[in-house]
Amino acid sequence: MNKNSSNTSTDPLPMQSTSTLNITEKEVDGQEEYNPFEHRHVTHPTSTLGSFFHLLKSSLGSGLLAMPAAFKHTGLIPGCFGTVLVGLIATHCVHIFVSTSREICRQCRVSSYTYTETCENVFKHGPKKLRKYTQFVRHFVDYAMAGVCLGGTSVYVIFIASSLKDIIDYLSPSHTFTVKEYCGFLLMPLILLTQVRHLKFLVPFSLLANICLLFTFIITCYYTFSDLHDFSKVKLVSNFVEWPLFLSTAIFAMEGINVVMPVENEMKRPEHFLGCPGVLNITMILVATLYAVVGVFGYLKYGDEIKGSVTLNLPQDEILALSAKVMVAIAVYFTYCLQMYAPMDIIWTRMKGSIKQKFHSLGQILLRTFSVVLTVVMAVAVPDLELLIGLVGAIFFSTLGLFIPIVVESVHKWERDMGRFKFILWKNTFLMIFYLLVLFSGCYSAIKEIIIRYS
Question: Name one Pfam family in it (predicted).
């Protein structure tokens, strides 16, 4: 979930891609230079401030509540530096991807491209030896995006189940169930909610989820920033072998590249997205700062007792804390269907051509049901919020947010301009090493802990 749901929690935004061949002012080598911004015809363009809030909302989700648990794996000092490092790398990867998308738009004389279309056209117009992989790249990127959403929604299931367990254990101590059992109880409500197929019907759910998350954050901050006096239970530096779980959790929390292109494509003044200060830079500075502050103070407050979401550490016997747990469960429940919208659209687009028209409705029902069952099974298999976030962040979010932008820029620049002393190649090699470090060490650490805890 990023958060990010996630997921990381983010709403799908409408995407437009229009093609035009209108002339522009300048000429380069006898051919008119194409400016994509001048040819974007968005019905309802978003202001610069509105785009800032869209991007901020996509980055600030349930992942924020997981940052104190991430700091447990590094300690305070490496956690602060690590948050800055992940924020810088995530921001840079968004920069290079958006810049590449704009360059390929100019080359193809198209007003805008989506995330998948950018990857596809970079390979289509890249080195000849790589062009045969164009369709493979399109499918890989689509399924990577679907994997991010499905992995993130698996985290949501654990998030809801853990919150429900805390709530019911307090209200009815005689009826105690495990987190796995609560995951099973959620199966049917999630299946029913996910059958909503049109984005406009999900708007009220999005509004309710945002309101609940806002109040949850306020209440959580009230408890987190009060009575900070016992610092003996925190570490300045934790064991180095635990650091990979911090990296994968931080990437899960902060990565929101899947909504970047829709936001940029819908802007009234897209030239304000990149650059200094720029919408992206301002947003990521604010996001990294908030994540560091919540991570530091959440860890100072609860130490090594911190759980996968800081809301699970709130008192069980106080109405205010209990209301926060109720609201975050409601918020994540309704965010679940919003996050499932994108992967369902991607997978159904691939499937519907091989299914007869009269069976399309049944096919959608079965696809959505199967997808929900899959996320619940993943949650039951790893019923630990902290470890599942680490695993999903290491595999899915790092691939979409780090690996793909690195490869796309490298392929696009390969026969064009790698910079002085091939700077771009060396820089992307370093970033690829970082990605592989997150992928393998994050997976190893998460799977190792899963085996230890559930063997």
Answer: Aa_trans
- Cis amide prior to 277 (ω within 30 degrees): yes
Render pLDDT for 243-268 as a digit per residue (tens, 0 to 9).
888 998 888 888 777 778 878 888 88
Tally of CA atoms within 13 A in the half-sphere of 289 that contains its CB:
7
Distance, CA of 95 to CA of 409 (rounded, Å): 10
Measure Cα distances from 252 to 6, 111, 329, 394 in Å: 7, 31, 19, 8
pLDDT at residue 123, rounded to an integer: 93
Structure tokens at 113: 């491209």
Query: How many angstroms separate the CA atoms of 255 and 278, rounded?
Result: 18
Choice among 105-119, 327-341, 362-376 with the minimum mean pLDDT: 327-341
For position 80, what pLDDT does the model report? 92
The Cα–Cα gap between 13 and 306 comes to 34
Amino acid identity, residue 234? V
What are the b/e assignments for 145-174, b being 16+ CB within 10 Å?
A: bbbbbbbbbbbbbbbbbbbbbbbeeeeeee
- On whether the CB atoms of residues 296 and 82 are closer than 8 A, the answer is no
| All residues at 6 or more sequence positions from 421 whose CB lies less than 8 Å from its CB, including other chains | none
Report the phi/psi class of residue 308: left, alpha or beta, with left for phi > 0 and alpha for psi in -120 to 50: alpha
**Measured between alpha carbons, how far apart are the two ends of the chain, in Å?**
26
Closest CA to 383 of 445, 315, 307: 307
Residue 110 CA to residue 413 CA, distance in Å, equals: 19
